[in-house]
Amino acid sequence: MKRTSFITLTLLTASLLASAQSLPKTGDDFGIWTDIAVEKALSKKASVELEAEYRSEDKMKQNSRWAMGVSGEYKITKWLKAGVGYTFIYKHNEKYTYHYDAPNKPNYSKPNKYAEFWGTRHRVNVDLTGSLKLSDWKFSLRERWQYTYRPEKTIDQRYDFDKDRMDGKRKTYKAKSKNQLRSRLLVVYSKKGLNIEPYANVELYNAWSLEKVRYTVGLDWDFIKRNTLGVYYRYQDNSKDDDDTRDTHILGVSYKIKF
Fold first, then answer.
1. For a tag on the chain, would you pick the N or C end, based on fewer CB atoms within 10 A?
2. pTM: predicted TM-score of the whole model, two decimal places
């Protein structure tokens, strides 16, 4: 009963409805991330996984992302495995334009136009993960190449801050693609006979320069055979990522079933 109540409360919290914003956001944000996955072993070396995900932002007042993905892993050696995946993303977007105090110097305190819309993205990734076990500790390094394609999107109108009204004009955001290298170092404490595994990791996002860093601590609990419930705290430091403009504190909940 306690487990059921906890999961229900988490899902209700994560389903808060959106609220409109009229000014650029400042300061750190807070959001809830949840995901559920089903993993199927094809052999001792290969497996496939289906995953669904939900995210919120703006201190949980805005639904920010829904996603579904499929991935596969193959164990090349005892210490090395390869992975490949595809994710379909439906993401909330906010776009601002600003007045300029001087050429190439936008004044971020003086917004000009604002647009809010939902758009789709297609993402593929390929990765290699090397691991090492020392007593009850597991160390791994994952290098992942990630390619994201955002189709062209046309919206009806934007908000004009100068005139304090919608501008009544259509705006087209051109198709865009992005390559990133994600490097993640993970440490897990895994003691035989213990059904809880605490972990910590740091992940760097690079696209010709460092764009984002994620710091995560959490634990996975095998509360039923082949069923794992995970909880984690994540701090996301957005240095230059144009999709995530604010640093973010994240509370995450995950659930995985293995067959």
1. N
2. 0.85
Residue pair 170/155 in contact (Cβ under 8 Å)? The answer is: yes
Neighbours of 250 (CB within 10 A): 19
Taking the mean position of all CA atoms in its chain, how far away is CA 62? 15
Please report the pLDDT score of residue 241 as a whole number: 66
Gyration radius of the chain over CA positions: 21
- Region 106-116: what's the mean pLDDT? 87
- Exposed, middle or buried: residue 150 (CB in 10 Å: 0-12, 13-18, 19+)? buried
Contact between residue 233 and residue 30 where contact means Cβ atoms under 8 Å apart? no
Long-range own/partner contacts, residues 152-157 (CB < 8 A, 24 or more apart): 153/117, 153/119, 155/115, 155/117
Residue 13 pLDDT > 60: no
Task: For the beta carbon of residue 251, count every other beta carbon within 10 angstroms.
Answer: 19
